[in-house]
Design goal:
- The structure is a single chain.
- This protein is an alpha/beta fold and about 350 residues long.
- It has two domains: about 160 residues, NAD(P)-binding Rossmann-like Domain (Rossmann fold), CATH 3.40.50.720; about 160 residues, Dihydrodipicolinate Reductase, domain 2 (2-Layer Sandwich), CATH 3.30.360.10.
- Helices cover about 30% and strands about 20% of the residues.
- It has eleven helices and 13 strands.
- Helix 1 links the parallel strand 1 and strand 2.
- Helix 1 crosses helix 11 and helix 7 packs parallel to helix 9.
- The protein is globular, with a radius of gyration of 19 Å.
- The two termini are about 40 Å apart.
Length: about 350
């Protein structure tokens, strides 16, 4: 029997990509999509391109999410952190569904980080240690009893995949990890703000949330999970592109570490990972991965500095695609199901 799944917040950028992926997934039945903005509209007409699984579906109000989730196997939350904070505990207590949250509401462990980076006090700290951080290439499949999966942030996914194996293998110093990152405009979500209008974004490049981006503590925690505590400096930038992101991490090699050691480390770490490609650092770019669940990673070194680069599609591997990947693993499906047929946008 196919898995019965629903999406809360299906009209945003990540939510709409998720709906299209699930509609074409052979192992699921998409039974509901919610959106206050498009309540009552046809899902198939609102979202393009579409799979056959969207036909006949209509958006329902977000307020109906709890009742709609009764009897489903998986509920995806493509919502802001404030919405997820409110809805996850109620889903946890009133349904048997597994919850895959695409927001940052349950990614962290330090309560002070929520105050500093998300501007709210976390109301359910008891659920934080019960949330599985869903970055499969580094942390494996969700445990059999994991009902809550915290889908990683897009920047954190790229930054961790390019640096964690190097730290884990003891090839680089732990004094500091510097990460320069650049993302397309869809990374900010579907919102009508002047800062993200065409005239403000086109032909420009600017830093934002300097030393205050919410993915900073997420990256730091991801590295700490390997027992490698390293201070993280993270600065994101806005690119005049629709989608895709690239991170460049700067580290110091330990004495005697060669370039070939670093490349071999990444190749060994991802040898059996279907969505990570280890390539020459100069080949890591957004065009190669846009529209796919792939991540390109590469590393270069000159004896004093290690530069590790990663690129991914922020809406697929950075959000919706990774959520589907986590669902597949949680239910014993092929990890690539619903994701291996995706093709990049550029030749």
């Amino acid at each position: 029997m196919p898995l019965r799944v629903g999406i809360v917040g299906a009209s945003g950028y990540s939510g709409s990509v998720l709906a299209s992926l699930l509609a074409s997934h052979r192992g699921v039945e998409l039974v509901f999509c919610t959106s206050d903005k498009r309540n009552g509209e046809s899902v198939a007409e609102a979202l393009q391109p579409v799979g056959p699984g969207l036909r006949g579906l209509h958006f329902e109000a977000n307020s109906a999410a709890l009742s709609l989730s009764a009897g489903v196997d998986v509920v995806f939350l493509a919502t802001g952190a404030e919405v997820s904070i409110d809805l996850v505990p109620r889903l946890w207590e009133s349904t048997r569904a597994r919850i895959i949250d695409l927001s940052g509401a349950f990614r962290l462990r330090n309560l002070d980080d929520y105050v500093t980076y998300y501007r709210f006090e976390h109301p359910r700290p008891d659920l934080l240690p019960r949330a599985h951080y869903g970055l499969p290439e580094l942390y494996g499949s969700p445990p059999a009893d994991a009902r809550l999966i915290a889908n990683p942030g897009c920047y954190a996914t790229a930054a961790l995949l390019s640096t964690a194996p190097l730290l884990r293998s003891g090839l680089v110093e732990l004094d500091r990890v510097l990460i320069d990152a650049k993302s397309g405009v869809t990374g900010a979500g579907r919102q009508a703000k002047e800062d993200y209008s065409f005239c403000e974004v086109a032909e420009d490049l600017r830093a934002y949330k300097v030393l205050s981006h919410q993915h900073t503590p997420e990256i730091a925690l991801g590295l700490e999970r390997f027992g490698q505590g390293a201070p993280v400096v993270f600065v994101p930038h806005l690119l005049p592109l629709r989608r895709g992101l690239l991170t460049t991490a700067y580290l110091r090699p330990k004495a005697g570490v060669r370039r070939d050691d670093l490349i071999a480390c990444l190749r060994e770490a991802y040898a059996d990972k279907p969505f990570v490609r280890v390539v020459d650092a100069s080949r890591v770019g957004i065009k190669a991965v846009a529209g796919t669940n792939l991540v390109y990673v590469g590393v270069e070194a000159n004896g004093e500095t290690v530069v590790s680069v990663a690129a991914l599609d922020n809406l697929v591997k950075g959000a919706a695609g990774q959520a589907v990947q986590n669902m597949n693993l949680a239910f014993g499906l092929a990890e690539t199901e619903g994701l291996d047929g995706l093709t990049r946008f550029a030749p």
